[in-house]
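HUMAN: Can I see a protein plus its fold?

ASSISTANT:
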Amino acid sequence: MADIIASFRHDAHPMAILTSSFAALGAYSPEGNPALAGQKIYTAPTDAALRLIDKQIFRLIGKAITLAAMAYRMRQGRPFVAPPANMGYAESFLYMLDHLNEPSGYRPHATISKALDTLFLLHADHEMNASCAAVLQVGSTLVDPYSAVSAGCAALYGPCVASCLLSIPSSLPPSSLPPSCLPPVSVLLPAPVPSLNVSRTPSHAP
């Protein structure tokens, strides 16, 4: 995967890299591809089918932050950083984004890690947004989970959804952000951006 991501142009958009990377990731899990392993590997009423589903979910969640960090560092012209073994999910993501030549005991700021962990939870509880609907629609064809998640990433690539993501920091109470974070947020978000609801699928949609 490192070679695949490194092959992109230096100015490639991170979402283009991430969308392609998720699709390519499926090539390393042929046992999780119904087109190769059988159409009923996920729908069969067996414990094996449930375990296979869980295995792909764990892989996708675990590798998502690694792929995202690799896309970011490729754009920065920095070498990739291997995931740490002794950190939480959000903290590991920040580590892979920012680690340079610090000593081996380097850890991301605890407050920033906690804030990012909270933002991840808020996104996970965002109900039927555009990317979730895309994953469900593509997944209903019984395609492999990696291709379905790649479709979700493509939905997030759209400018309507991207503007929603930028609105999250502006919705946080100022007291919840460290003082050092306030100036960059004010620079990045000088004016109101569209509501988070623009990415929500209408209730009357099929």
Q: What stands out?
A: The longest helix spans residues 47-76. The mean pLDDT is 80. The two ends are 36 Å apart (CA to CA).
